[in-house]
Specification:
Elements: E1 4-8, H1 15-23, E2 41-47, E3 50-56, H2 69-82, E4 85-91, H3 98-110, E5 114-119, H4 124-129, E6 141-143, H5 152-161, E7 177-181, H6 188-196, E8 214-220, E9 223-229, H7 242-257, E10 260-266, H8 273-284, E11 288-294, H9 305-317, E12 325-327, H10 336-350, H11 356-369, E13 382-388, E14 394-399, H12 407-421, E15 429-434
Parallel strand pairs: 1-3, 1-4, 4-5, 5-6, 7-9, 7-10, 10-11, 11-12, 14-15
Antiparallel strand pairs: 2-3, 8-9, 13-14
Helix pairs in contact: 11-12
Length: 435
């Protein structure tokens, strides 16, 4: 059983600041605009040798005009259900509000251990104000400052005492990470929610709903991996709000962090320059790539619609031609699991290790049959090949004149590698070393 703690409270009391302090990185987006954190957002923390998972939630409000409000309430309830303890955050400067009292009633129903964190108690006189929150009748009140860390030690000491076990440092270590990337509104969150069979991400038809990159553990059909749902990536010129800027950064970080990315493309719009940018970036970073053409149910089909679209996409991506393309619909649940299976297959291709003897048996006869072109009257001889230990499949070719191997011949070698050993969806790196 994992130790799970949900941080809850109304908007702008400092939940995300506290979350970031616990996970020791700027993970949750912080802004003084209410409602920035919309989805549940997970991180790992440790205190005095006890490990636990933290869930940051959106600010719980009632009666506002925010169209996300009912969705946020649902997400908060899900987070509390999932948690083994709740940190209820309130604001010393604002004092006890009607919203706090309403929320306290809801938390009480959960029967979970509750720790009241009276935030923004950054001076002794403000700490005195924290006493007002005993009126909520939720037990001990801990005056803290999420901003500078004051008082957080006492709160965490009390919190970890209730954990039955030490927990695991990182329950997700060594598990494949698959990021879902793409422009806003192509259906990334809908895809994730279909996979998880629950509303893990808030879905609306407004672009830019998902602001944080969200990690979900996924176990199905014998597969176990982490799905990272990211904010839609938009062109820089369209990024006006600070929050949107951070969301794009978060998406790029998700790309750096993942093993494989599923790039979701809108079937009605086809591959756009922004999609190509993501794919080129993924290729540079050596990530596995699968393209999911979503909303395929909305396309009028003729005999070769899919074939023609695949051909157009690969032309736009040239010379990148190793990426699998799957036509799917998150709404109609068409070929959704095929996309996941393909992503797992691409992950396995990425971690594949080819024995040196197999490499040489397969490729040396091809090289003898079609040797590199002589340069300046000198014959180039490749003696043997071995796979180098790296995150992306990388191969060293040992030869007498590595500097004279031409690009076209490098492509020939890469194609032979792919034909013999199936590296679908994965970039392959070739190095030429002097022997």
């Amino acid at each position: 059983m994992a130790n799970i703690v949900a941080i809850v409270g109304r908007p702008n009391v400092g939940k995300s600041t506290f979350f970031n302090r616990l996970v020791e990185r700027r993970d949750a987006i912080m802004d003084n605009m209410p409602g920035v954190t919309r989805d549940r957002h997970y991180g790992h923390a440790e205190w005095t040798g006890k490990y636990f998972t933290i869930i940051d939630t959106g600010g719980y409000v009632t009666g506002s005009e925010d169209k996300y409000e009912s969705q946020i309430r649902k997400q908060v309830k899900l987070a509390v259900d999932e948690a083994s303890a709740v940190i209820f955050m309130v604001d010393c400067r604002d004092g006890l509000t009607g919203h706090d009292k309403e929320f306290a009633n809801i938390i009480r129903q959960s029967k979970k251990p509750v720790f009241v964190a009276a935030n923004k108690a950054d001076t002794p006189d403000k700490s005195i104000l924290a006493a007002e929150f005993y009126e909520l009748d939720l037990g001990e009140v801990y005056p803290i400052s999420a901003e500078n860390g004051g008082g957080t030690g006492e709160l965490l000491d009390a919190l970890v005492k209730i954990f039955p076990e030490e927990g695991v440092e990182d329950p997700n270590a060594g598990i494949p990470k698959i990021a879902i990337l793409g422009r806003p509104n192509v259906g990334k969150s809908s895809f994730l929610n279909v996979l998880l069979g629950q509303e893990r991400s808030i879905v609306t038809d407004e672009a830019g709903t998902t602001r944080d990159a969200i990690h979900s553990r996924y176990k199905m059909f014998g597969n176990d991996f982490i799905l990272i749902d990211t904010a839609g990536i938009r062109k820089k010129s369209k990024v006006h709000e600070d929050i949107e800027f951070y969301s794009v950064l978060r998406s790029l970080r998700a790309l750096e962090e993942c093993d494989v990315c599923i790039v979701v493309v809108d079937a009605q719009r086809g591959l756009e320059s922004q999609d190509v940018n993501i794919i080129v970036q993924a290729q540079k970073l050596g990530k596995g790539i699968v393209i999911m053409v979503n909303k395929w149910d909305l396309i009028k089909k003729e005999t070769k619609t899919a074939d023609n679209m695949r051909k157009e996409m690969l032309e736009a991506l040239a010379p990148i031609d190793y990426i699998p393309i799957i036509f799917a619909s998150a709404l109609e649940k068409q070929r959704i699991f095929q996309v996941v299976e393909k992503a797992v297959e691409v992950y396995n291709n990425r971690i594949k290790k080819i024995p040196t003897s197999q490499l040489n048996d397969a490729l040396l006869p091809e090289i003898v049959h079609y040797p590199p072109a002589a340069t300046k009257g000198k014959l180039i001889q490749i003696k043997y090949i071995t796979q180098v230990n790296a995150a992306t499949p990388s191969f060293a070719f040992f030869c007498n004149l590595p500097q004279y191997i031409q690009e076209s011949y490098q492509r020939f070698l890469e194609n032979r590698l792919r034909e013999n050993f199936d590296f679908t969806g994965v970039p392959v790196r070739l190095f030429f070393r002097k022997k």
